[in-house]
Design a protein that fits this description.
about 140 residues; mainly alpha
Length: about 140
């Protein structure tokens, strides 16, 4: 993929902001603190977007050796259902980390400011976005 336009970068940021805001809300409501995010699926193949997520979420992002968690999880559960192995043990043996992307403190500060703006604008634009998508 070549260089991204400013509009394309903003779209990626918007999705990561939504994920960040949702993650913060879930952690707050559940009383949990997540230290590391695990990337999975097609989104795990974009180093730029993973770096953006690490910075926006201010969390390390682990990229597994096998990022196709859906099919891998289904296989682990199927083997467990057939009594071929213990699903928890199989998952712990298979879920290995290939690399970790760490947040950059300077980018975290920039994104914290932008996330505050996003949180202010999102409720006001939610209905507009729904109208645009339903045209």
């Amino acid at each position: 993929m070549g260089s991204l336009t400013c509009a394309e970068m903003r779209r990626l940021e918007e999705v990561a902001f939504r994920q960040g805001a949702t993650a913060e809300d879930l952690m707050e409501k559940a009383g949990l603190e997540v230290e590391t995010i695990v990337a999975a699926g097609g989104g795990a193949s974009s180093p730029l977007w993973l770096k953006m997520k690490a910075d926006i979420l201010n969390r390390s992002v682990n990229i597994p050796v096998n990022p196709e968690a859906g099919s891998l999880g289904a296989a682990i559960l199927a083997g467990g259902a057939a009594n071929l192995w213990d699903p928890a043990e199989a998952a712990s043996n298979i879920a290995r980390v290939k690399t970790t992307i760490e947040p950059d403190a300077k980018q975290v500060r920039i994104y914290e400011s932008r996330l505050d703006i996003y949180r202010t604008l999102y409720p006001a634009l939610k209905q507009v976005n729904h109208r645009i998508c339903n045209e």
